Fold:
Amino acid sequence: MKTFEELQNAWNSNDQEINENFLNQLPGTIKKINAKKRITMLVLGITAIILLLYMIWIGKGAPLLFIAGLGIMIISLLVRIVLEQLSIQKLSKIPKDHSFYAHQERLKSYYTSRLILHQWITPVILIAYWIGFVMLLPALDENLSTFWFNYVWISSIPIAIVMVLFIAYHIKKERNALEQLQQEVQNEK
Amino acid sequence: MVRATAYFYFSKMKKGTRKEFENLYRQHYQKVLRLCLGYVSGDKDLAQDLLQESFIKVWEHWDNFKGTSSRSTWLYRITVNTCLQELRMHKKYKKAPEETLKNYEATEETSLKKEKQFSQLYACMSKLNKENQTILLLELEQIPQEEIAQIIGIKHNALRTRLNRIKSTLTKCVNNENI
Structure:
């Protein structure tokens, strides 16, 4: 029969060698983390500029419906990318030095906002994207051969399926995270 | 080379702060590591990852310390929140205690018994919810109860009652497992 104190003594006898290398490597690690953040923002910024330049270039002399459709598609993509980045930043800004309960509450609010993003905002953005795509079709029909026109609209179907599955996956993921947070704390407070 | 780079970045911090961080790391290394071990059923590599992630957060948030609690309370709060968040986000941390037990079978005969005993202790811990597991791990580290209450965010009296129940549950479980 072991008492709690005996378990505690055994527990505290379990010492390991201090990893001194970590102290030497830490500044390098921090530098890498910061560089990664900067690269992500740079890539997103460049993507946004390329998409806008593409719209200006392709839109010259094109029908208004085509330009509007392309604009809606590009803006939808950019809005989604910006929202995702803001959401990632929101998670990293949650203070880590709050109490267990306070931190849990902040995380619950974060995952609830993620759920709203995936359940409501992303589908609206996707619908806008597909409306934009449909607006392109008359101009594509006029300017492309039958083969390429059929190729463009038929290939859009699997893309649409993948997007719907993507949303479903993320809704499930955020729901699981919320449920997990709720399970971690039983009503014993 | 690593050391040279390290000193370049360390030099950007005040010398006193740098020293303080290193002292905190060395002083609380064992406690933080054991805390992390408790969350990953004794897997040393995973615990080391959690420890490093926690100290990276400590480093990043060093200037946010307001001094309303002790540095150690602040450190344990960051460790607990970081470990639990990492466990939620990455599947690699969701290792069953039995899996860790299998790993010990390959170790030397002399340490085998001790390792198995620890593994059984981890198995009992893993039956608790994350909140109770955290309270237990902090109590095992002999952190003052006032401090544990601050880390969890509950009143001292509530913690005391809860702690008695957790201790009793753990002791029963461990003895049933014939530790």
Q: What stands out?
A: The mean pLDDT of chain A is 87. Chain A touches chain B through 44 residues (CB under 8 Å).
